[in-house]
Amino acid sequence: MGGKKEEVFSIDSSAVIAGLASGLGSFCKEEHQNYYKCKHNNSDPEGCLPEAIDARRCNFALANLYLDPKYGCDAKFTSYVKCLRERDFSFRDCYDTRLDFESCASEKFGIEFPFAVPPRLKQYQKLKPEEKPKNN
């Protein structure tokens, strides 16, 4: 009875949605585009309900795919989500777990992820030209 309890996340949690975000643009692109086009052209809050349901259904399908143990990315996705939760959604602090998960998902599912800029490089890019180290 004293064994370690496996943590289970609700697919609808903020951390899971944040973990899904980088892959949604590739996996659910069409569904999200249809929803945003509808919202742009329709002021009725219920006018785009079918498109919203399609986009949400795609989000859940992607989460279930990531969490399916038969593909081998479930532990990596869970680690990434756990990192986001524990570090108040600091993507910088979770960079390594993100890359580990995304490389698995890219290989297994062919999902294209946006390039993840290393946190140190982002800091370097924010420097003014006169603050950047000189190459001697």
From TrEMBL:
Q: Where does the source fall among the domains of life?
A: Eukaryota
Q: Its GO biological process terms?
A: mitochondrial electron transport, NADH to ubiquinone
Compartments reported by the entry: Mitochondrion
Record's signal peptide: none
UniProt record similarity statement:
Belongs to the complex I NDUFA8 subunit family.
Task: Please provide, in alphabetical order, the Gene Ontology terms of the cellular component aspect for this entry.
Answer: mitochondrion
Function summary: Accessory subunit of the mitochondrial membrane respiratory chain NADH dehydrogenase (Complex I), that is believed not to be involved in catalysis. Complex I functions in the transfer of electrons from NADH to the respiratory chain. The immediate electron acceptor for the enzyme is believed to be ubiquinone.
Keywords from UniProt, A to Z, are:
Disulfide bond, Electron transport, Mitochondrion, Repeat, Respiratory chain, Transport
Q: Which PANTHER family match?
A: NADH DEHYDROGENASE [UBIQUINONE] 1 ALPHA SUBCOMPLEX SUBUNIT 8, NADH-UBIQUINONE OXIDOREDUCTASE
Q: By what name is this protein known?
A: NADH dehydrogenase [ubiquinone] 1 alpha subcomplex subunit 8
Instruction: Kindly indicate whether the keyword Secreted belongs to this entry.
Output: no
